[in-house]
């Protein structure tokens, strides 16, 4: 595999991370070459806006067994899109539980600003956290947040 990557001239990155959540978030950033969400750690864990972030956080084990047993992990369906031939519109739309046909598959979302320290690239961001898998599947309303200045 390494020889194929080197022959194609693709850059090689070695990233050592001890957190599966951090790995998943960084992996999402690298494969799609787009940022899905940016926020300080405490804000990201308590108020995620992007559905992918919410799905990742729903899978993080909780040390309290009573709370952990009550939570339902959000399982993303579908195949991970090709980084060589990414889908139109939002790169996450083929797997997104909040996908809205005719919008998410057509218009790439900019990074919308949420408060002073958080931005997410989603037309239909999470309204609150935690959410059940069923609640995440409801698209809610289109964000009224402003795109982050370039």
Q: Based on the structure given, which CATH architecture is correct?
A: 3-Layer(aba) Sandwich
Q: What CATH first level would be assigned?
A: Alpha Beta
Rg, Cα atoms, Å: 16 Å
Oligomer: single chain
Strand content: 5-15%
Number of beta strands: 3
Secondary-structure element string = HHEHHHEEH
Low-confidence runs of at least 5 consecutive residues: none
Largest sheet, in brief, is: 3 strands, antiparallel
Helical run tally:
6
**Number of self-contained structural domains:** 1
Mean of pLDDT: 79
N- and C-termini, Cα separation: 37 Å
Range of helix content: 25-40%
The secondary-structure class comes to mainly alpha
Please give a handful of descriptors for the protein shown.
single chain, about 150 residues, mainly alpha, Rossmann fold, 3-stranded antiparallel sheet, 6 helices, 3 strands, globular
Task: Provide structural commentary.
- The chain has a single domain (18-137), classed as Rossmann fold.
- The chain has 150 residues and is mainly alpha-helical.
- A three-stranded antiparallel sheet has the order 1-3-2, with no helix packed on it.
- The protein is globular.
- It has six helices and three strands, in the order ααβαααββα.
- The mean pLDDT is 79.
- 30% of the residues lie in helices and 5% in strands.
- The chain has helices spanning 2-8, 20-32, 41-46, 51-58, 65-70, 133-137; strands spanning 37-38, 112-114, 118-120.
């Amino acid at each position: 595999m390494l020889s194929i990557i080197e022959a194609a001239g693709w850059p090689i990155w070695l990233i050592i991370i001890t957190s599966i959540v951090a790995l998943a978030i960084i992996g999402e950033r690298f494969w799609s070459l787009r940022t899905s969400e940016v926020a300080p750690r405490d804000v990201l864990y308590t108020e995620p806006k992007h559905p992918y972030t919410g799905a990742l956080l729903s899978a993080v084990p909780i040390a309290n067994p009573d709370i952990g047993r009550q939570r339902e992990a959000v399982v993303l369906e579908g195949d991970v899109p090709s980084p060589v031939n990414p889908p139109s519109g939002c790169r996450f739309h083929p797997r997104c539980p909040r996908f809205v046909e005719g919008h998410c598959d057509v218009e790439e979302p900019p990074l919308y600003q949420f408060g002073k320290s958080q931005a997410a690239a989603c037309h239909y961001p999470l309204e609150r956290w935690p959410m059940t898998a069923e609640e995440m599947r409801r698209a809610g309303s289109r964000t009224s947040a402003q795109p982050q200045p370039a």
